[in-house]
Amino acid sequence: MAYSPASGSYSRFRKLLGYLRTHRTVTIAGIVTLLGVNLLGVYIPLIIRDGVDELQGDFNLDRLLALVPLVLVLASVMWVMRMTSRMLIFGVGRRVEFDLKQTIFEHLLTLDPAYFARNTIGDLINRSTSDVDNIRRLLGFAVLSLVNTFFAYGFTLPMMLLINVRLSLMAIAVYPLMLFMVMLFSDRLRVQQGDVQEALSHLSELVQEDLSGIGLIKIYAQEDNERRAFRVINDRLLQANLKLAKTRNMLFPLLEGLASVSLLVLLAFGAGSITLESTAPMPAGSLTVGSFIALILYAERMVFPTALLGFTLTAYQRGEVSIDRIETILLAETKIRDAADALVLDPAEVQGWLKADHLTLTYPGAATPALQEVSFQIAPGETVAIVGPIGSGKSTLANVLPRLLNVAPGQLFLEGIDVTRITLDSLRRVIAYVPQESFLFSTTIRENVRYGDPLRSQDEVQAAAQAAQIHLEILNFPQTYDTLVGERGITLSGGQRQRTALARALLMDAPILILDDALSSVDNQTATAILHNLSQGSQRKTVIFISHQLSAAAIADRILVMDQGRIIQAGSHQDLLAEGGLYRSLWDRQTLEAVVRS
Ligand SMILES: Nc1ncnc2c1ncn2[C@@H]1O[C@H](COP(=O)(O)OP(=O)(O)OP(=O)(O)O)[C@@H](O)[C@H]1O
C-alpha cells in the first residue's frame, strides 16, 4: 500500500474531530483548564507590574511580603491546572489510540482473505501501531500546543498592546516571518514524513516475511542476500529519516532564534522608554518599570508557543500522514457481506444439499476464469472427491462454497437457497472447512481443537481427535491435551498439524465438511481410514474431499475431475477408470509412482 494523501487537510481535520467525538467532554475539560492557565498567565504579570510600580514610589517591605505569597499561590494554582490540562489532553490521545487500534482490528476482521493477499502483514501491523502512535501524539501534544498557542495569542498579545503598542508591534514584527517559514516548509515536511512511514512499513514487511520463512532462508543459504536486502531497506529508512531531520533541524532553530529576537527587541528599545518618575504625568510612549517587566513576561509567554510551532507542525503533519494511511485500511470494504434481506439458516434444518449452476469465477486482474461454468449437485451425506491437476481450480471451488470468495448470485445453492442470500455467519456455521495450510494458534492442543466453540467438553474434544486419528499421539505429548503448540510450545509434524486442524473442524459437527488437500501430509492408509470413517455411520455428513491422493479419493461415492476451471469428468472410481481420459491417466501415473517408490 503506497502512501497517497487520500484527502485534503480539511477532511483530515474533520476526521480528527471525528476521533475526538466520543471523548469531547474530557477534551473540552482539558481545553477549559488550559484557558484557566492562560488567564492566570495573563493576570500574574499584572500583579507584578502593579507591585513593582508601587514599590518604586515608596518601598514597603510589608507590601512586598504580601505580594510574594499571592504570586506564589496563583503560580501554584496555575501549575496544578497546567498539569491537569496535560493529563486530560494526553489522556484523550491515549483513549483515541485505544479506539483506533480496536477499530482497525475489528475492521480487518471483516475483510475477505483476498485483501490480505494484496497487502502485507508487516505493512498492516505498522499502520496499526506506528501510525496510530502518530495520531496519539497529534491529539496529545499537537492539540495541547495548538490550543495553547491560540490562547497565548488571543490573551497575551492584547495585553501587550494595552501596555505599549509600539514596543509590542516591534516585538512581534518577526512573527509573520516565522509563520511564512512554517508554511514554506510544511509541504516538504509532510512528503518527507510520508516517506519515513512508508520505509518503516517496508522494513516491517521484510522482518515479518523473513522471520516467517526463516527455514527457507537457511535451506537455500540466503542469509547474505537477506542481510543485504535488509540493509538496503534499512538504509532507505535512514535516508528518509535524515532528510526529515535535516528539514526539521533547519526550521526549528530558525524559529527559536526568530522568536528570541522579540525579547532582544524589547530589551533594546524598551529600556529607553522607561520613565522612573512615577508621580509626574507619563510622557507619551513611555512606560513604568513594572509595565516593562510585565511586557517582558508577556513576550516570554509568546516566545515558547511560537518557537514550538515547528514541533507542533511536525506532530500535526506526522499525524496527517498517518490519518491517510489508517483511513486507507478503514475505507477498504469487502464485497462479501450479508445482503440486506439475508436469511439466517437454522443448522438443524440443513441436510447438506449443494448445487452449483454454471458457477463461474474470475480472480480480479486474471485473464481467464478460475472456475468456468461449473455445474454439479451433491446430495446430503454424499462423499465427493474433487481431483485434478495443479491449478485446475479445486481450491477455488472449496473457497467459494463458504463464500470466502465473492460468488455471483444465482450460481450456488445450499438446500436450494442461493448462498448470497444467506447470512455469512449462518452459512459458515454449517460448513466445516479445513484449508490446505493447517494453522494452529500458540495455545494448547485442547484450545486449538475447540477453537470454533471454546465451551466444548474434554470428552467432545477427545472424540473429535479420535475421529481425526490424532488422539493417541496427543496422549504421548508432554502434557497431553494441555501441551502448548506453536511459537510457545512444541512443534508438531506436518501430519500432526493437519489432523489437529481436522479435529477442530470435526468438533463443529457441521453438516458439510470440506477438506482442501487437508490430509496431504498424512500417509495414504491413515487418510483413507479417516475418510472411510467420515463417510460411514448414521450421522453422515456431506464431505467434499479435495486431494491429490487418488487412492483415498477412490473410496468417495463420486469423484469430480477438474481441469482448467471446468469439471470434465464425474462418476465413481470404477466408472472413471473404465471411461479413460484424465482420471485414468492421473491414476495410472500415481500407481506407477507408488510401484517405483516401493
Ligand atoms: N488469489 C488468487 N488470485 C489470482 N489468481 C489465483 C488466486 N488463487 C488462485 N489463482 C489462480 O486460479 C487458478 C486455480 O487455482 P486453485 O488454487 O483453485 O487450483 P488448485 O486446483 O487448487 O491447485 P493445487 O492443486 O495446486 O492446490 C490457478 O491458475 C491459480 O493461479
Automatic annotation (TrEMBL):
It comes from the Bacteria. It is a multi-pass membrane protein. The chain crosses the membrane at residues 25-44, 64-81, 138-161, 167-185, 251-274. The keyword Transmembrane helix applies. PROSITE patterns: ABC_TM1F, ABC_TRANSPORTER_2. The keyword S-adenosyl-L-methionine does not apply. Pfam families: ABC_membrane, ABC_tran. One of its GO terms (cellular component) is plasma membrane. Residues 354-589 form the ABC transporter domain. SMART domains: AAA. It is found in: Cell membrane. Residues 28-318 form the ABC transmembrane type-1 domain. Keywords: ATP-binding, Cell membrane, Membrane, Nucleotide-binding, Transmembrane, Transmembrane helix, Transport. GO terms for molecular function: ABC-type oligopeptide transporter activity; ATP binding; ATP hydrolysis activity. PANTHER family: ATP-BINDING CASSETTE SUB-FAMILY B MEMBER 10, MITOCHONDRIAL, ATP-DEPENDENT PERMEASE MDL1, MITOCHONDRIAL. This is Membrane protein.
